[in-house]
């Protein structure tokens, strides 16, 4: 028994000795601190020695609020003195005039890039909603963006993937040529591209991309939230919608993810300044987007109003698809309200549908010396085939005050039935109301879910 005990003690001593020896063995060939320092040095060298970089940040901090936003681009020139010069597509002023600030590399859980003095990249994350122009409309959140980022790989390359340290924003750094960074920082190329694209879209009601089987996809831009939507009908005649976040570049717009549709795959939409058109490149082939005089995509929505789509906003300025009769009667109603004794200015008319109750509320906004008031009129509605008929139910006190002045428009709602259609435009879906009883009376408004 005693002999066996000696054997066990000896074996334990060997195991303990082996453990002690392994304490100085490393899983990698170098200690972790040394590897992190080498990684930071390699990133410092890569950033400062490149001609320039394009950083695109896709904010993620507003997702809990249900808001979806696109990206922001920054053209950057880093120096060994830990200074960075940049322009940004956050707004046209930042896209035109470059700004210098500081940066540093620091080891957190992963090697990280810090922009440590206030710069263009901080504006989208500014908690002051007035400064950041936050789409959330409140202080404290900005665009949910970041200004400190972790490198996701230990060594740099020509494309560097980053992740925001505060909000988890997705970001990517792409090395650009000396010519591209010079045109962005010193020649206003980013500002020029933004202006050209927004002007082109504003003056182009319908934009199409040819796809398979002779069909076309419609494109719609939301420049406020930096989102692009593409719509087309598949072989089953069902509507297909592809949505992508985007950011501006000196060449056009860059999509967050590659888009595959109709036999094409692309991640960038280029602006051709000479020919004043947009195009994509797929498989080495250039495909030009066409400006159309008529809607690329139109379909009836009478049977789905209030469910798939519920809100139509008729703006104060004329919109595509509004008949001369509607415009004429609208101007009469506007003048009536202005001269009706209360000195009111007619604002947006908002049709709000609820399919569960078959009710529609017409919210008419009016203003008196800049102070806005709401006039509400409640209707029930019934659907028969592709026709919808409204029946007046009640009205608010404000609506009663302007009822006679609004009669040139409201009388049609009270007497006629309508057909509702959706049209895809470069600025989003619009809804077309066409009177079945008076076909020369039709109007449009911005359509949303």
Write the layout of secondary structure elements.
Layout: H1 2-22, H2 32-49, E1 52-58, E2 72-78, E3 83-88, H3 92-96, E4 99-102, E5 104-107, E6 111-114, H4 120-123, H5 129-132, E7 148-151, E8 159-164, E9 170-176, H6 178-186, H7 189-202, E10 206-210, E11 216-222, E12 227-233, E13 239-248, E14 252-261, E15 264-272, E16 277-282, E17 285-288, E18 290-292, E19 298-300, E20 311-314, H8 324-338, E21 345-354, E22 359-368, E23 371-384, E24 387-395, H9 397-401, H10 407-415, E25 417-425, E26 428-435, E27 442-448
Number of helices: 10
Low-confidence stretches: 1-27
Q: What number is the mean pLDDT?
A: 91
Strand order of the largest sheet: 4-3-2-1-9-8-7-6-5
Helical content (DSSP H or I, runs of 4+): 10-25%
**Outline, from the CA principal axes?**
elongated
Structural class: alpha+beta
Largest sheet: 9 strands, antiparallel
* End-to-end Cα distance: 84 Å
Number of strands: 27
Assembly state? single chain
Q: What radius of gyration results from the CA coordinates?
A: 30 Å
Beta percentage is 35-45%
Could you walk me through the main structural features you see in this protein, from its secondary elements to its overall organization?
With 449 residues, the protein is α+β, with helices and mostly antiparallel strands. Helix content is 23%, strand content 41%. The protein has helices at residues 2-22, 32-49, 92-96, 120-123, 129-132, 178-186, 189-202, 324-338, 397-401, 407-415; strands at 52-58, 72-78, 83-88, 99-102, 104-107, 111-114, 148-151, 159-164, 170-176, 206-210, 216-222, 227-233, 239-248, 252-261, 264-272, 277-282, 285-288, 290-292, 298-300, 311-314, 345-354, 359-368, 371-384, 387-395, 417-425, 428-435, 442-448. It is elongated, with a radius of gyration of 30 Å. It starts with a helix and ends with a strand. 34% of the residues are buried.
């Amino acid at each position: 028994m005693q002999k066996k005990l000696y054997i066990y003690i000896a074996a334990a001593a060997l195991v303990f000795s082996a453990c002690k020896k392994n304490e100085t063995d490393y899983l990698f060939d170098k200690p972790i601190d040394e590897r992190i320092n080498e990684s930071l040095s390699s990133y410092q060298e890569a950033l400062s020695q490149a001609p320039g970089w394009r950083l695109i940040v896709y904010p993620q901090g507003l997702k809990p609020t249900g808001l979806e936003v696109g990206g922001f681009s920054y053209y950057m020139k880093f120096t060994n003195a830990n200074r960075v010069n940049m322009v940004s597509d956050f707004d046209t002023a930042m896209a035109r005039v470059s700004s210098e600030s500081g940066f540093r590399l620091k080891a957190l859980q992963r090697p990280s890039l810090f922009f440590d003095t206030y710069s263009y990249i901080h504006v989208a994350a500014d908690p002051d909603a007035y400064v950041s122009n936050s789409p959330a409309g409140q202080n404290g959140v900005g665009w949910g963006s970041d200004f400190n980022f972790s490198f996701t790989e230990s060594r740099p390359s020509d494309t560097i993937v980053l992740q925001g340290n505060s909000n988890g924003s997705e970001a990517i750094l792409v090395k650009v040529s000396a010519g591209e960074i010079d045109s962005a920082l010193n020649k206003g190329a980013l500002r020029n591209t933004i202006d050209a694209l927004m002007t082109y879209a504003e003056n182009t009601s319908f934009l199409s991309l040819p796809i398979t089987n002779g069909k076309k996809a419609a494109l719609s831009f939301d420049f406020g939230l930096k989102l692009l939507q593409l719509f087309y009908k598949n072989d089953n005649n069902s509507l297909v919608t592809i949505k992508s976040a985007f950011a501006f570049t000196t060449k056009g717009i860059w999509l967050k993810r590659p888009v595959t549709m109709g036999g094409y795959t692309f991640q960038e939409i280029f602006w051709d300044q000479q020919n004043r058109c947009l195009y994509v490149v797929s498989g080495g082939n250039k495909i030009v987007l066409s400006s159309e005089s008529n809607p690329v995509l139109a379909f009836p929505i009478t049977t789905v109003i209030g469910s798939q789509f519920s809100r139509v906003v008729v703006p104060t300025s004329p919109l595509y698809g509004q008949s001369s009769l509607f415009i004429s009667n609208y101007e009469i109603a506007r003048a009536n309200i202005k001269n009706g004794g209360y000195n009111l200015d007619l604002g947006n008319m908002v049709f709000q549908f609820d399919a569960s109750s078959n009710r529609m509320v017409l919210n008419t906004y009016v203003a008196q010396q800049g102070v806005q008031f709401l006039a509400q009129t409640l209707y029930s509605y019934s659907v028969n085939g592709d026709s919808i008929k409204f029946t007046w139910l009640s009205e608010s006190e404000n609506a009663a005050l302007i009822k006679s002045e609004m009669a040139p428009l409201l009388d049609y709602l009270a007497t006629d039935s309508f057909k509702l259609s959706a049209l895809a435009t470069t600025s989003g879906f619009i809804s077309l109301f066409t009177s079945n009883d008076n076909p020369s009376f039709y109007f449009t408004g911005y359509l949303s879910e």
